[in-house]
């Protein structure tokens, strides 16, 4: 077999087939073949690690009693100077698994958007709650977060028996399980983090057109140096959280 054909076979192989190719050709005199085998071995290690991560991510869904469902809840936008707080609730089936599902913060924007499409296609339920900057100013962030979580749970259908929440206890469901770093550990929370992030980012990109000059499409309302300079030059917009600006601008 010539080098190009063999390298193509190595690149397409996995599992037992790749092991057999490695045993047969690991001492091959062709450097390109040995390099292809080394690359394939590294890919196999990454694939096994990803498979193990995904298995752990779905473990709770796999072990729920028959007929029971879990909802994952996560928020995006607690810290920005502008824009809404967004809370998502997602109910996923245990199968099929969504390959690449992860904490939204660990994903690129294009990958988040791809996964959001997959989540929407497979989820049994997706609900969002939006809390405006004005409402955050009025009731405070803690109350706004509680209010948003209660709202998404009230809208979630079918009925769920377990609510998985990223972070600390919130007291929003009788069977509530808070999970620290849950967006990286529980499939439904990871899905909720992606849906909330993609939805809020799209809203902030649109806000750039309504309120130009603040860089909302880039900073998504967070307090970047350029955003703070724009606040000093332009003053706050209608979607800024006045209660967050005390250390930045006189209020």
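Sequence proposed for the structure above (251 residues):
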């Amino acid at each position: 077999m010539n080098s190009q054909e063999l390298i193509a076979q190595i690149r397409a192989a996995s599992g037992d087939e790749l092991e057999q190719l490695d045993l047969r050709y690991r001492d091959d005199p062709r450097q390109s073949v040995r390099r292809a085998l080394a690359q394939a071995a590294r890919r196999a290690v990454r694939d096994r690690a990803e498979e193990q991560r995904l298995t752990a991510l779905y473990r709770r869904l796999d072990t729920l009693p028959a007929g029971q469902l879990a909802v994952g809840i996560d928020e995006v936008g607690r810290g920005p100077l502008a824009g809404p707080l967004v809370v998502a609730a997602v109910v996923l089936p245990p199968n099929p698994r969504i390959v690449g599902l992860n904490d939204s913060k660990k994903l690129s924007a294009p990958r988040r958007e791809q996964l959001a499409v997959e989540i929407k296609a497979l989820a049994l339920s997706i609900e969002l709650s939006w809390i405006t900057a004005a409402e955050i100013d009025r009731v405070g962030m803690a109350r706004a977060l509680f209010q948003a979580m209660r709202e998404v749970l009230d809208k979630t259908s079918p009925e769920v028996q377990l609510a998985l929440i990223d972070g600390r206890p919130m007291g929003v469901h009788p069977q509530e399980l808070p999970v620290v770093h849950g967006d990286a550990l529980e499939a439904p929370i990871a899905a909720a983090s992606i849906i909330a992030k993609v939805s809020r980012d799209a809203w902030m990109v649109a806000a750039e057109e309504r309120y130009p000059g603040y860089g909302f499409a880039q900073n998504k309302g967070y307090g970047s140096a350029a955003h703070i300079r724009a606040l000093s030059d332009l003053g706050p917009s209608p979607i800024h959280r006045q209660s967050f600006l005390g250390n930045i601008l006189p209020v």
